[in-house]
Amino acid sequence: MPDQPEPIAAPSEGLAFPSVARLELDELLDQLIARATEVKLTQGRLRHLLDATHHITAGHDLDDLVRRIVESARTLVGARHAALAVVQDGRLLRFVQEGTGPGDVTVDGGLPYGDGVLDVPLRAGGVVQGNLVVAESEHDGGFAADDEQLLTALAGAAGIAVENALLLDTARRRERWQAASARLSSDLLSGEIAPEAEVQHLLDTAVDVARAYGAAVTRVTDADPGTAHVVAAAGRLHDWAGRTAASPGSITQAALDADGPVLIADALDDPRTTGVVHRAPEVRSVLAVPLATGTSGPPGRSVLILARTVGDEAFGAVEAEMLLGFAAHATTAIELAQGRRDREAVHVLEEREQLVLSLSEQVVRRVQRVGLALTSSASGVDAGLRDHLLAQVSELDDVVRAVRDTVLPG
């Protein structure tokens, strides 16, 4: 009988690894799991960044956009507080904060600074559009480098969105001013507004389109160059009408000297608006532009002044430019309306003159016919009556000559 093969031994219950090799494998598995968790977390945060970017770019209105940016920043990095200040030409345009508590240290318009704070600028085209700040991380250990990177990426998208919103806002403002200028010119040239109400209508329109607190037109006459007379006022400053103020050193004189717009961000800090603040302490931003000769009254020069109060956005360069054009169009329309009224008055006088000429000629002919009739009758009467009739005829001739000399002198 042939030899039987030896049976194969059954495997042991588990694979046996050297203890060192098994330890290294466990460490590799732990690292792999940690790396996978990190990748998953990173992917999640990137998705949140994309969601936040989409959220802010969905808004076109500046106020809505600023609110969206603050909400997105706070959610993205897990901050308890967030704030955004939007600036343009050195002016604070918008400031929004969310979740700010009483314990925060705030400076520069309410932006918090200090430990546990991330502050990143909003830039577009190399221009700083504002600052985005988050404070007090909801996670242990505070904000990490990843948080700052995410916030910086969000700020990049937000800066472009803010720039686009500002451009859109500027375009809308220009459109409002141009439409208001066209309506005002149409109203003034329609003849439906009385001459004494033209400047008031100009002011009412300017207050409405500029969303101003109030407005006034001041005038410095050649006869009294040291005094500025308020010839009309509108809005919350309507009671200024009829008042006077010293012209030297005033906002009125500044606009006349500059022969262009004068912008004052804070009336409290500028000596040229001391009189304005004295009469209206609530006024802050002031914009003044010189007017052409379209206003009536004694010879002199006029200035259109707009004012905004505490909490309102300060006037900017775009509004100064638009107000200057608006004022130029308005005064031109006033001058054209006055010229049309003058032409209409001349036309009426010419018609009356023609009527007088026609009537006078008819009267002269009738008088002449009476004179001829009297002359004819005088030939058939006695000498005494004939002399009397001829004397009356001579007097009628004198009347005819007097009428013609009066109607057509020379």
UniProtKB/TrEMBL annotation:
Residues covered by the GAF domain: 24-172, 198-344
Concerning Pfam families, the annotation shows:
GAF_2
Q: What is this protein called?
A: GAF domain-containing protein
Q: What is the lineage of its organism?
A: Bacteria, Bacillati, Actinomycetota, Actinomycetes, Pseudonocardiales
